[in-house]
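We emphasize that the prediction below concerns an isolated chain of 114 residues; any contacts that depend on oligomerization or on bound cofactors are therefore not represented. The input was used exactly as deposited, without trimming of termini.
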Amino acid sequence: MPKQELEFTPFTNFDVEHFENVSGLSQRVIAKDPESGVATRILQFEPSTDTSPNGVQIHDFWEELYIIEGSIIDLELNEEFTAGMVATRPPGMKHGPWKSPNGCKIFEVRYYGK
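Result of the prediction step, given as a token string:
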């Protein structure tokens, strides 16, 4: 089943899903195609979140992100990314792990293709 049709609605209407392996990291999935894994979500880092337990991330899909508020630090690059910044990650691109001393909220779209 493809992503469902959705008109503007508060993102807080979507359930918060906490990640078990990283304290302070959660997501609100806005839309997801369960067959392909294509998804749109809001990723939330609470202050002091550290995703080191996940290690460096590599995946087989495209990922496009916009930092809504706050900031994250890429621990491999030792570089901070702040609100208003965007990223496009092609399949196979290494990224993370991340630390967010003051918290961060990110809009993310995942998809397959060119």
